[in-house]
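TL;DR need structure tokens for one chain.
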Amino acid sequence: MSVTNCESYLGGDTNIDPNKTNDASLNTLTPTILFFSANSTQSATAVSSSYIQQIGSLVASGTDSHLRSTFDGVWVNLYLNIIPNANAMIKKANSTNAPHYSGLAKVVLAYNLGLATTIWENIPYKSSDNQLTDFSPKYDSQEEVYKDIQRLLNEAITELGAAESLFKPGTDDIVFKGNISLWLKTAHTLKARFLLHTAKKTGAAAAYTAILDALSKGIKSNSEDFQLIYTDRNISPWHSVALANNTGNLSTTFGGQFMNLMNGTVQEIVDPRVSLLAFKNVAADPLFKGTNPGTGAGATTVYNDRTNFFGWNFSLLAPLQMITNAEAKFIEAEVRLLQNGGKGTPDAYNAYLDGIRANMSKIGVSAANITSFTAHPKIAVGAENLTLSHIISEKYKALFLNPEAWTDLRRYDYSNTILPGLTLPANHNPDLKGKWIQRAAYPTSETSRNSTVATQNFRDLDVKMWIFN
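>> reply
TL;DR here they are.
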């Protein structure tokens, strides 16, 4: 496996022979799994954000019409670049008394398993890395995968908390630069995310208590976000998309649902983030408009102005966000509200407002504009009037280009009571028979090479996953 894209992070050659994974050093394996985790996140988002109308195709009947997708890039990264290297890392760390490296690898594994199971539901895990001895790995059920995710995170928390680690991550850790306390906070925050996914299945009351406990030990500021910041040598994949638009290779722009939440159409207040995220290419139009989903038409926005402006998510050094302080705040707000029977509490309300402030501050909204927005009566509704719709709408905006937003909408059955204005796209995929898309198809590489096992896990695209039933 060649990982030349990681070279500039380490300053040397980090090519790895795929048949000698266990011979790679810990400080070579670390940037590999982190780099491919970020790339998998972007690959997933390119489809999932189209499904939920954060972005939209610039051709009619594009991906935002809920076209069938196999999310190939995520699958390839998971099974060729992440699982085998993370497992090799854990094995080597255990043999060299380096629990901090093992803990880091388990956090990354848990993150990627969570990403994968929310895309395909049942996936190979326990038997997916038997090197050259098992060419037909069995699939673990989604319930089993979530149990493994929590096990990995619990083990990671223990290992990252170890007082001694003979070898420790440093500059090879291209996310936190060896700051183990931030890996611990990431592990706890991921526990909260994935416990929320399964709360209805495992028992809501106990899950909500566990989620709040995890959040109390998790990410507390934007400086602690789990994200990869690219460089001018390793360009952000979203920046590459924006650059392609400069040459006329237009593929996507902002979706109508997202822009209608940002431009005042839905909330009756223009969100100050909109001019930092998007460029309005029709100056005479008073509104930033996204595509009418499924039509390829209607947008007045692009990712950049072809010269000096690039929307925040599309700039050269834009971070690829995996889990953030803002998300943690919105999880807290939702859980506290649900704990109280769906009614707002002061703690839920404060967490909701803090989530807005966290994302706005990160993007660069001025303090005055943050204050003005969060004081507007459509936003500052008061604890007693807080609803799931307020929380999920703001989380949807803050999680722009994050695949977790797709999971949120599926958790609430794509309700337009929860996310106002949401409707099925035009030219909707006829295979879905008027229903919302729930999952990806398995990649052709898997269905051809592991067909007997894969076909046992086939489901129609509109069939809800275990966690959403």
